[in-house]
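Friendly challenge for the regulars: who can give me the structure tokens for this chain first? No prize, just bragging rights.
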Amino acid sequence: MSKFVRPLQINGPLHIDVLRERDTKGLYAAADNKMINNLIGYSDTNPYDEPNNAEIVIDTSNETLSNSKSGLICYLEEHINKKNITTS
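First reply, four minutes later:
Bragging rights claimed.
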């Protein structure tokens, strides 16, 4: 018998300065220079809709990648155990 599980909503908010710093393609600079008019999450026409009911929030701008991964894995293990869901 298969079990269906609702999707887990995860939010990874980042301050715009962190996004600019991590932007390897120069999209934010292009948007600032009016070369891109509708950058998702940055323009008025395509704002970022932050989830209201995320089960977990991972803030990689204030913690290391290792800590972020550990927190997510711990949450998933707890979530799976509470629901009695097998992973194999």
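The longest strand covers residues 10-11. The radius of gyration is 17 Å. Your move, everyone else.
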